[in-house]
Amino acid sequence: MDVTRPIARAVLLSLVAAALTVVVLPTAAAARPASARPGTLHLQTVPPLSGVVVKVDGRVATSDAKGRIRVDVRNFVDLKKRVAVPETRISPDRKVVFDRFRGDVDAGVRGKVVELGLRTARLVSWSFIDRFGNTVPADRVTAMRLRSNTGEIHDLSGAELARPRWVAESRTQQGPQGLASKQLYYVVDSAMVDGTSVVNRAGQRFVPWDQQAWVVQLLFFRVSFTATDMFFTQRAGDGIELTRADGGVQRLPFGRDGTALVPDLPRGTYTITVFGGGVSFGRPVSISKDQEVTLTVISAADLTLVTVAVLVVAVGLILLGRPHLLGRLRRAGSALTARYRARRHSRPQHRRRLRTKPAAVRRQHVQAADDRRSAPARSGAALLLLLAALAVTLLPSGTAHAEAGHRRDTPQPSAAPVPVLAYYYIWFNPTSWNRAKIDYPLLGRYSSDDTEIMRRHVRMAKTAGINGFLVSWKHTPQLDERLAKLVEVAREEKFRLGIVYQGLDFARTPLAFDTVRTDLSFFATRYATDPVFDIFGRPVVVWTGSDRFTAAQIKETVGGVRGKLLVLGNAKSIGDVESNQAALDGQAYYWSSVDPVTGTTGRKLAEMARAVHQRGGLWIAPVTPGFDARLVGGKREVPRREGDTLRASFAAARLSQPDAIGVISWNEFSENTHIEPSERFGAADINVLADLLGVGVDVDVPVDSSEPGDGGHWGLSAWGALLVAGAAVVLLPLGVAFQRRRSTPAGTPRDRPTGTGTEDLFADL
């Protein structure tokens, strides 16, 4: 047997195995995908933060100061399912939560950096101060609402107001260059103290990324209360009872100076009652500034004066209506006089013989009798003048003030029997006042969703004689919410509203027909039958931008709502009126930049009004106090001329025989057409309008309480003077009639009065 043969076979097999190892195994390895092999995953956090933890296959990696993470993995197959980013507190006041990856982490096998998007939260705290920077204890605030720019709401109350809170700080969003971190901010919607909110809604903004200790300013005001007698101007009462919005009652006694001072009264409406010294009825007082509030008390002296006046009037009416009672009183008086004289003169009197007197002597006696009869009238007139002078003298100067304004001495008759509507804007946010403004409201840089601001606007407008607002609106969640609030305020205040539908976008491009149709249908469904919008039977909607379309396009767009709404266009020429009037219910010309003093405003408005009325349309004529839109791209300025521009514009509008007057505007502060009382112009223009409308008041801002009375001396108030004058009117005819009867010689024939006798008594005057 050859032993070399098995050895040769073994060597051959070894060589074959070696060849297979060299050739086959590398080929198999080459066929295996890279994702199945071990590697390193590269991550970049967005935003770049250190301390972010990532776990993969039991391995843990942490981001560096630039937010970079490197973690070894056994392979990249389904790696996304094996990567975990736990919520991590990377600092005492910040924590991160996984949001999203940009791209597939499996692609990290090629060394590509994968973006790791994070949402961050921040631990914030807050404190409270008043308008002067003084600390307000947190326990005075009962509730607070915070709202983020993404709609997240935090309602805090009780112990939550005294401890820090985690709030969302940032989130990621997809951008053209990859993930981007967006910082969030929060506004204070409300801070409740004693049942009322003491912040302007959304008026304070905080960014958690930059500021973790928030300081919230609360609107507290310094208010002093005094009380005076109702008919006399002296101080009255022992103090006040202040009923808050939450129902709590606080008693505040008057000091030596007759006032009760509250240095930090929260903004809001209170019911005030005076206790001690008489009868006082609760009076609502709205507080929004440092002020003095004077209340009225019905004292014992007032009750006595009223009782005496009522008795005098009652007795006077009885005697005036029954002349025969005067005769009885006269006879009773004569009898008493006779008895008195009989007692004084014990000796009998000798009766003198009557002699016939000469004619001259008789004429002298007749003249004397006439003088005696006319003396009561002269005395009565003198008495009336004396009482009137007394009432005027005792009338304190402070009684001329009304709660909503100051009444003028001689109100003029109304010059505008048609409705007066002011264009009103609800688009203001706290940041709106930072752009292109040269003037600001006296009510502060408000947000248009503040119900209290809406209420003050409505009350000031009503005081000036304005009947309603034409509200700028289109169908967006924010404007829908604000319009709903304004509707509620208008309903409570018995005020009217119309709509100016904003059919143009910010670039002055008309909105699509479908958008306009949908928005108007929404409005008609919700408000077509609401009495707040009942100015002309149906709600008025002015469609801005309608002049950009043909009559056929307009008809197709608004045809479904014309039976429910009065849809007006905003034509700027007679041609526009004639081209589309058949598809509309009228026109409202928004002409804010005109100078009525130097131009031909009246003629153009009259021609346009004639064209609208000839087609049976509704015409709203524009009135404006001035114009300056140079900060928003305007080219001209129309000065106000201390009210002369408004007067000229009003006169031109009235000559066009409008169905309503549209005042441009209540609060358009970008174009400076506003009549809302402002820092620059005060209440000058709204008072000019009130004068033109014959209202006869001077509008004050804000309208919170009546002016304080004098209170330093005894005197009659307006009510007291009125009571004195009324008593004089009743007593004067009575006294004259009584004196006439007494002065008439006995036996002189008198005609018996007919009826009640009042006519005869007044005829004597």
Which CATH architecture of the largest domain is right?
Alpha-Beta Barrel
Based on secondary structure, the structural category is alpha/beta
- Overall tally of structural domains: 4
By DSSP (H or I, 4+ residues per run), the number of helices equals 15
| DSSP helix fraction | 25-40%
- The beta-strand count equals 37
Instruction: Assess the beta-strand content as a share of residues.
Output: 25-35%
Low-pLDDT ranges: 349-356, 386-404, 409-415, 703-718, 747-765
CATH superfamily of the largest domain: Glycosidases
In whole angstroms, the N-to-C terminal distance is: 174 Å
Over the alpha carbons, how many angstroms does the gyration radius reach?
43 Å
Coarse shape: flat
CATH class of the largest domain: Alpha Beta
Main beta-sheet annotation: 9 strands, mixed
CATH topology of the largest domain: TIM Barrel
Overall mean pLDDT: 81
Please, could you describe this protein's structure?
With 765 residues, the chain is α/β, with parallel strands linked by helices. The protein folds into 4 domains: 4-31; 39-217, no CATH class; 220-298, Immunoglobulin-like; 420-679, Alpha-Beta Barrel (TIM Barrel), CATH 3.20.20.80. Helix content is 31%, strand content 26%. It has 15 helices and 37 strands. Strands 1, 4, 6, 7, 8, 9, 12, 13 and 17 form a 9-stranded mixed sheet that branches. Helix 5 (359-394) runs antiparallel to helix 14 and helix 6 (451-463) packs across helix 7. The longest helix is centred in the middle third of the chain and has 36 residues, at 359-394. The model is unreliable at 349-356, 386-404, 409-415, 703-718 and 747-765 (pLDDT under 50).
